[in-house]
Structure formats: C-alpha cells, structure tokens
Predict the structure.
Amino acid sequence: VYGKVGVDLPRNSSAQEAAGQVVSKSEAKPGDLIFRPGHIGIYAGDGQMYDAGSPGSGTSKRSYSWMGDVTFIRVL
C-alpha cells in the first residue's frame, strides 16, 4: 500500500517500526502503522486496522484490540 504512494518500507515489522515516528494513540490517524513485535497493520480509525491475518487469508479490516499494547507509527 505504501509503495503505491511512493513510500518504501522495509519488509519486516521491526524495521518498519523504526522507519517512522512514534505517535500517541490520541494522535493516531488512519494510515499510520500499528506495531507490536512480530506484527504490523495499518490503522483505519475507530479502533480498526487493516492487516494480513493468518497466512493465505488475505487482507482484512478488524479490531486491533487483540494485539494488546501497540505502538502507532507515522510514516507519511
């Protein structure tokens, strides 16, 4: 998704976390990354995110509450 708008992100989640600026949950905007070690998604707003769930399941929009303590990362 980011590549389509000219943003080159690393492949793994830890490197993607380091590619942007941490923002607070109250500052998070749709399009920010949501990170926890080993997983990353794209914040959709209202407690939702887009991510690739289990292998082969494709992309889905769902709550990020299952991730526990997350970090919001702004890359745009």
Q: What stands out?
A: The longest strand covers residues 39-45.
